[in-house]
Amino acid sequence: MTHHLHTGGCQCGAIRFRIEGKPGQSSICHCRMCQKAFGAYYAPLVSTRGAAFTWTRGEPKYFHSSNHVRRGFCDNCGTPLTYEAADGLAISAGALDDPSSLPPSMQYGVEAKVPFVDHLGALPSHHTMDDIAEAPFLADIVSNQHPDHDTETWQPVAAGGGGAPVSASKEDNA
Ligand SMILES: [Zn+2]
Ligand SMILES: [Zn+2]
């Protein structure tokens, strides 16, 4: 039997989560609320129904996008993290440490789909380092993004950058 264990977190690493057991459906939602909440053309979400979901570091802040739904996000870095309704919690698929591990099998809210979304795969393509001449800063870039695995300790850079790191002491229970 396959052991299902998926981990992930926000971009700054102040919030981390774990899904143990086989998650529910993986999907994308084109509805206008998901577009806004993710700042994107659509929202990739994985239902955690049927699995054990836990926050292993920190916890999100919430915006109640309606009387039935609240959406969790990191209030330090802004990463959208959850869609939560009466039927359970869905996690942002892009926040998984390995987003490719749970490919979507359904689209919702297609009445609001941005028409060109169906053609994104046909756009001309570039690798990041192909543009090094136009973006020389890439050569010595220093990332503040949390790595794609759990860490014993991690000091997220405070929102706004440049300031003192946010204390993670009370959150290091992973
Ligand atoms: Zn964060
Ligand atoms: Zn939606």
What does this structure look like?
4% of the residues lie in helices and 26% in strands. The protein has 174 residues and is mainly beta. The strands form three sheets. Strands 8-9-4-3-10 form a five-stranded mixed sheet. The chain has a three-stranded antiparallel sheet with strand order 1-2-5, with no helix packed on it. A hairpin with a 5-residue loop joins β6 and β7 (70-73). The longest helix has 7 residues, at 32-38. The relative contact order is 0.22. The model is unreliable at 168-174 (pLDDT under 50). It binds zinc ion (2 copies). One zinc ion (ZN) binds next to loops.
Please sum up the structure shown:
This protein has about 170 residues and is mainly beta.
Q: Would you list the SSEs in sequence order as H and E?
A: EEEHEEEEEEE
Q: What's the helix count? A: 1
Q: What gap, in angstroms, lies between the N and C termini?
A: 26 Å
List segments where confidence is low: pLDDT < 50 over at least 5 consecutive residues: 168-174
Helix content: under 10%
Which structural class matches the secondary elements?
A: mainly beta
Describe the sheet with the most strands.
Answer: 5 strands, mixed
Give Rg in angstroms: 17 Å
Unique bound compounds = zinc ion
CATH class of the domain at 5-114: Mainly Beta
